[in-house]
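Working notes for the structural subgroup meeting. M.R. asked for a predicted model of this chain before we commit to crystallization trials. I am recording the input and output together here so anyone reviewing the notebook later can reproduce the run.

Input as submitted:
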Amino acid sequence: MESFYTQTSNVVLPQTDIHVTMHSPKSDDGRDTSSYSALRTPLSAPTNREYGATGSVDYVPVTEAGSQDAAATPATLVKKANRRTVDNTSPLGVQDLENGFKKDFSMKKALLEEFQSAENRDEVSGEKLEKEDPSKGTSVVRQIIFVTMPVFMGYAALFSLQHKVKASYGIPDDNSSRSRLFSIAVSFLYLGNLIFRFAHNLIFFCVTPRYRVIIAMISMMLALSVLLGPVMVGRSQNLAWVFLSYSLGGVSIGSFEANLLSSITPLGHRTKLWATIGIPFGVSSITIGAFAAMALGVTAEAIYAVTIVCLFLAIFVFSFCIPYHHVENNSDSFGAFVQNLKEYRMWLPKIKWHALALALDMCCVSVFSPGVMLYVFDNPKGVPLWHGLYVNHDAFFAVYNFFTFIGETISRKLAYTDKKDRPVLYFLIFSFLGLVINVFCGAKNFGLLCPLAAMFVFLGNGAIYNYTCKFIDSNVEKEHNLTACSFWLFVGDLGSTTGSNLIPFIKTWISARGV
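Returned structure, recorded in token form:
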């Protein structure tokens, strides 16, 4: 076999009888390098070069296997593979080792990088999936509907049964000072609601969102108890009770909504769907069910009492049946709330259009739920369904409220079954369509299409509300969830307050264009 040269020091080392046979294909210049053998130098006997010696260097030929002149060993082949021959090229066997090591190292490096990339992709996609749908890995908690329903039953009892309260005081529906004072007292429900959209973070900063929900339910119980006890049963003539009751109601609904939505976010989209479905069920149980019951002889006092009992049971269900996962810095303290406000750039730009959509939507809801329509169709003969055909006033608005329930329930359900995030401003089309139909029917003095208009208004309301809930849970950081919900609902209440104040002007404008 043609010899080649390898570099070694002139130190004579003991040899062993172990031979290593290496195989390699022919080199590029045609030399046969199919096999060679070398004696191994013990690893415990390093050469001078290994220690950096500068002694003379010989180039020893390797000829046949077992030659005493051989200096290439496994140690020199493996550990010193970077040594060069006289023409500065690696011996063919060492070159093969080098190429093998380089290829092996490159393959391992490539596999490692691919594995790390795949792991990072899985981690990112997993985080995205969890962020998009917090319900992954959690079971739906349907009992939450029995928490939201009683609170909104109480809210509906306050605004829809206020005429019963006014009658118990013997106050006529006129422009007297006492009547105006009663209206101011009732407006504290909406004023308290507006203020406590944010004020709950300041007043109740020492407790977590879960306990704020319980405080809100207790406040609603107290609000109804004040009306039931001193006013309805005790027949007190002091309007301070009305101020107190409706203020407590405002504190309740203003604190309840955002804290409930935030505290159940870790339970997932499906649980939140059941929570939001409880809103139209709670309101309709009073605006439809309670009024139907009173038509059969049930008293308003009984309605208040049943609602109070339902609220007591709701506190029990929320305390013992609804799981709670605390989220640190989610406005769970005054400092955390202030910090979230300072970090508004991280959440406000994401929900600005959702807040605007809710404000415009709630303006339509407050005007037409049924709002101004109660004053437009105030003919003593009833509501003109069509020209010359009149129906009972209460029966008509029972149907009207039923269509609001249908529209809101359907849209809330569809918002969570839809896998995409739709631009919520698009759903204002339903709100404005309902507005146009109601104004047209009012101006032409017929109510046949008004229930359909009510359904359109609440199709928009339910869709905007639930699409936004889903969007906040999926796109806003969890520590900003409560602050974002509070701001969104606060802006929505600005819209509803504006709409309620526009009712007298809209009524006058419609009547002026009536036939």
